[in-house]
Amino acid sequence: MMRATPILAATAAAAAVLVALAGCAPGASVAPMATYGPNPTLVDQAHGLLPVVKIAKVVGWPAGRTPVAAPDLKVAAFAMGLDHPRWMLALPNGDVLVAESDGPGYEKPKGLRGFAEKTLMKSAGAANKSPNKIILLRDSNGDGVADQRFVLLQNLNSPLGMAFVGGRLYVANTDSIVSVPFTPGDTQVTAAPVKLTDLPGGPIDHHWTKNIIPSADGSKLFASIGSNSNVGDNGPAAELNRADILEVDIATGQWRIFAGGLRNPVGMDLEPVTGALWTSVNERDELGDNLVPDYMTSVKDGAFYGWPYSYYGQHLDTRPKDRRPDLVAKAIAPDYALGAHTASLGLTFSKGELLPAAYRGGVFIGQHGSWNRSQPAGYKVIYVAFQGGKPVGYPRDVLTGFLDDKGQAMGRPVGVSFDKAGALLVADDVGGAIWRVTPK
Questions:
Q1: Which of 98, 234, 247, 305: CA 20 to 30 A from 70?
Q2: Region for 75 from its dihedrals, namely left if φ exceeds 0, alpha if ψ lies in -120 to 50, beta otherwise
Q3: What is the CATH classification number for the domain harbouring 112?
Q4: Is 123 helix (H, G, I), strand (E, B) or coil?
């Protein structure tokens, strides 16, 4: 009888763990839209020995295939063949910067569960070597397709957010904010990046993405910092200055915590009517299919949003060892739920008047897609209308069709932005594409 090699044995063991993980109870069921909106249904917590794990295997886009746009919209590729494009910054001259990035790989798999999780992430198109580049895309003839691309910056450290302020391009690495002199129209930067400030990074860097946007007057940068665990699992020292949005002074690099208790804030934008800062937040896992909803919220200066001690205001999570009733008493509920485990990452308010009137004044959300859910959720781009600076009604689908008929991921939407013409751009990391949405 042939003996299994160590690698085959480990793979088989990991597969057994994956099967066990996928078979756990999903928790209470609710109507499809019950975990969306200003007053979501919060079901009872479902605790299991192992979490539910179901990740769509990445297969890429077949030739000629695109996402499916809403009936009054159309979608086409602005750029294809990119290397894990996560985030974008549209420049005043029409060029589009794209952060090609993945996690820094600080954490190595530990034990059988760690190996299984690493295997799952690989199949989902994550946990690969980070490209660590900023690419410049240019549509030189105005036909809606980038016909030129340049490597603007490279040798970064898992970059994501970008901001152009005062003649400098700021980039949020996973462990710092750096800047270089830049003029729109440039296709290469030769100056060495200058550090503005450090950000919480390794050796554990559970939520590695760091986003930045400028304040209205351009004197500050808001920086979103995710937690270093699901619910404080790595201890309080690992969470220092994490699960926060920081306000960074551009002149000095000094910063303060603007708001806290935000498990993994990623997308940020200023709401055009009130000027308030809004963010999209990935909430905690392993409490069942329909708990806890991801959300977007206006971010109040000095506010605390509950993580890890409570969720959606003062709903207690019993898992953290340190209960902190004083902080639970301060926790405020977010403004609008975006569905449980949808991985709502990108967030941008509508800009310009190219899109139909039904898509003006509100916010677009890129939902990367679930892993901790027995049935997939997210894997699409949605739009939520606003009135008087507040979200109203339920979302409408803008882009769907990222999963094929076998439930495999052809792509996964992440960052969302608007180009100079007013078209919506969507970064699709595992699909290697930037999609451009215009009126039909």
A1: 98
A2: beta
A3: 2.120.10.30
A4: helix
